[in-house]
Amino acid sequence: MFGIILFNTLRTVFQVPNWWQKIVPGGALNLLPALVLSLILTGQIGIEIGIVLLIVTFGLLFITWGYLYRVFVDALNGTEPLNLPSWSNWGAYGLAGFWLFLIVLGYSVIGFASFSMVISVLGMIPSSVEEAGPLLLLLTLMIIFFHGFLPIVFTRFAARGRVWMAFEPGPVWRDLRQIFRADYVQACFGLFGISLLGSLILGHLSWVGLVLASMFNFFLLVIFTRVLGLLIRSALKSGPPAQSEYWN
């Protein structure tokens, strides 16, 4: 099912009129924090100014998160055909993105604490670079897991628009068992693998590669946001109710 949904999504996205005009703004907003960070690391701007710019540009990412959330909610609701919404509701996207950020922040703290506990209990703290292999493997698997876990808790948030619903252990565990099937796991590995490969290839093109990687990764997120949303919809047989209270 994953392959069919991915193919259909790729096919339909190119049928959306002026689809690239919807991708470029998202790619540009994603580019800004990376650009500021590069300027800081290369010493082209001061640390103080760089930190301020980094906070501002990171805040702009809320808009892209909200835009992707709109695509995700449409997928949960089974909206056909694929529609790439306008960026005119940027304020509403920013608000939705802020709530998603709080959810991600909460689970990041939980994930970091769990990861630290696991490596301490298992004695996986490396004493040299050569011994870091198992730790990197565990970290990679954890990142891939979060690629699939976050959309599931976003589904809980989408049901009623309440952040606390994304942290209810019982319902989250129930959804996790229903949704984490072979096709969903394939989609998570696909998103991680394609994103990593694309970034590595484009990263060799210096500044041009940074721009292209940003556009490519946002396009990839749009595609897989739709794919994961449709897979979640098919797994939750009753059809997850998803609200769109942040936009008309």
Shape: globular
Q: Averaging pLDDT over every residue, what do you get?
A: 88
Q: Specify the number of helices.
A: 8
Radius of gyration: 19 Å
Q: Could you list the spans in which at least 5 consecutive residues all have pLDDT below 50?
A: none
Tell me the number of strands: 0
Describe the structure.
By secondary structure, the protein is mostly helical. It has one domain. The protein has eight helices and no strands. The longest helix has 32 residues. The radius of gyration is 19 Å and the shape is globular. The two termini are 31 Å apart. The mean pLDDT is 88.
Task: Chart the SSEs and their pairings.
Layout: H1 2-13, H2 19-41, H3 47-76, H4 90-121, H5 133-160, H6 169-179, H7 182-202, H8 206-235
Helix pairs in contact: 1-8, 2-3, 2-8, 3-4, 3-5, 3-8, 4-5, 5-6, 5-7, 5-8, 7-8
Q: What's the gist of this structure?
A:
The protein has 248 residues and is mostly helical. It has one domain. It is built from 8 helices and no strands.
Entry keywords:
0% strand; 248 residues; globular; single chain; mainly alpha
